[in-house]
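CENP-V/GFA domain-containing protein
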Amino acid sequence: MSQTYDISCDCGHVKMTVRGEPKLSLYCHCGSCRELYAADVLGLTGWDEENVDLPDDSKLFHHKTDGKEMHRYGCPKCGMTMYGRHKPGIPVIRHNVFRKNNGGKLPSELAPALHLFYGERVLDIDDDLDKCEDGSAVGL
Ligand SMILES: [Zn+2]
Ligand SMILES: [Zn+2]
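Predicted structure tokens:
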């Protein structure tokens, strides 16, 4: 069964629709994500381009890290980050965005499968998921 996720920011200014299954769902511990999102660990999903109706750029703020092709986009009114664009080159949406639009819970089919770039971590995680020291588990 194909899922459809209607997502909006906290204030409702930015909306987007995501369909189908994510290409990946994981926790990223890389230094670049840490810098871009200002979070110690990033829970994220990645999607095929055609499965995401992205908002028009004119509705979004755009934040880019210094010297890297790491981008994040969000609502200029409430400040909520809606998606990112970085490796592996597909739209990336944080678990947190789905939680906020699903009564505080991550939809079970979007559950993360592993920890990526665990070798770059600043926080040790004691769970049963695989820990990949680098990006090789998703071909990075
Ligand atoms: Zn907003
Ligand atoms: Zn990362």
